[in-house]
Amino acid sequence: MLQRGTASGRGAHEARDNAGEARLDPLAPLNLATQVADRLVEAIADGRLKSGQRLIESELAADLGISRIPVREALRELESQGLLVSRPHRGIRLIAFDAAWQQQLYEMRVALERVSWRHAAAAYRREPARLARFDTLVERMREAVEAGDRQAVNRMDIAIHEALCEESGSPLLMTLWRAIRRHVLIVFAQETSGAADLGAILDQHVRLRALLRTGNEQELERELQDHVLGHLSLQRRSQEARATGAAFMEHN
Taking residues 107-124, what's their average pLDDT? Predict the structure, then answer.
């Protein structure tokens, strides 16, 4: 533990200074900027912040009850991940979370998860005990489904896919995943909004668990395509059901 204000502490600092060594910078509040970034993503996911909306640093700081510094850092982090755009005279705005964005994210997820699933499947077959973590996350998803908690279902979905990336043992793969994970959370929230059948998401992951343990490469590839599109098809089924119900009410 670092000691400050003591004679021995001052002596140690003076010794380092005299030796020309660099001193440590003061510690910032633990992960505050990351917490701010996560809070903003949650607000996007639940619709409080809208596609293309301008974000004003001072207003966000006032809303969150913190200084502008961690807000500024959070905005930079989200901009580096492609969730915000900053333009002269127009300020900082959220990107458009539209069909084109969804399609690009789908293509990136398929490419990334194709690699992570292959490596995870190999790891699980070598060491089946490693599936215990996957099973724990699926059980937490089951609890969220039973509670009807859409946000918790989406968070568990993210956690499962992140765990599969971690099983690859590739720092590069994890870096790429973390660059898009907030995008994925937002699209999950969009696609499950109003969907009645949260159990279908759970069923996907139960099926995926079986394939990761015993399925072949072709079966995993088919499941990958269906799985990444699964949320979208869930949303479409829900929209179709609402449209059918509305049409029935109009004619009766």
Answer: 92
How confident is the model over 20-35, as a mean pLDDT? Answer: 66
What is the Cα–Cα distance from 97 to 25, expressed in whole angstroms?
A: 38
Place of tokens 């670092």: 2
Q: Whole-angstrom Cα distance, residue 234 to residue 153?
A: 14
CA 1 from centroid of its chain's CA atoms: 33
pTM of the shown model: 0.75
The whole-angstrom distance between residue 87's C-alpha and the CA centroid of its chain comes to 25
Q: 167 to each of 44, 150, 161, 163, 216, how far by Cα in Å?
A: 29, 26, 10, 6, 18
Q: With beta carbons less than 8 A apart as the criterion, state whether 230 and 200 touch.
A: yes
Compute the distance between CA of residue 185 and CA of residue 181 in angstroms, rounded to an integer.
6
pLDDT at 167: 92
Residue 2: is its pLDDT beyond 70? no
Q: Identify the three-state secondary structure at position 14.
A: helix
